[in-house]
Amino acid sequence: MQDFGAAFGLAFELVLRADGDLVEIVLLSLRVSLSAALLACAIGLPLGAFLAVSRFRGRGTAIVVLNALMGLPPVVVGLLVYLHLSRAGPLGFLGLLYTPTAMIIAQTLLITPIIAALSRQVLDDLNAEYSDQFKAFGLSRLQAMRALIWDARYALTTVALAGFGRAIAEVGAVMIVGGNIDHVTRVMTTAIALETSRGELALALALGLVLMLLALGINAAVQGVRLSAERRAYA
Fold first, then answer.
1. What is the pLDDT of residue 72?
2. What is the CATH number of the domain that holds 115?
């Protein structure tokens, strides 16, 4: 077990000199989480817009289910993906288990309900304001969805950043489907868990520092988007 003071010193040294292993883990984390966030936005934003502009039997139930899925346990998502991608699963022939692709799939499934539910809330309020105008112009449902997404683009950017922040902090699902394999599927959260269990605190603290800086950066970006949207609204 390393001395805490020495461990912090080594952690800062690893970050400042851009240690090779540290950079590799951080870059893989960013690649996996950014890919998952983009895929989740491609699915979740249209789904949220559809629920915002549509009125159909069972819509309330669909919204309740979607909101419930926001709290879906990550280990359950990881288990479901594992069962589908394992050799005995229906998608086992693809050979994706214990690869970054499997981790992207798991994170996408985890954050898509979050993005869809939050975007639905944003666009529902906006649709209530614009629905009469949409009817007057004779816009189709798809045209209304596009108009809402464009008008709410700053708020939806905040939603997307929230999804990315949730993805990059995930550990349970990616541990199950990725296996935490060195130089293959080891990301920041799983590496922190492993190094801490080993008692090797330097790399764990360095990765934790990078993760905290990323979290601060995401929150700063969210705040910047909000301030930009407010300035444009009052301009």
1. 87
2. 1.10.3720.10
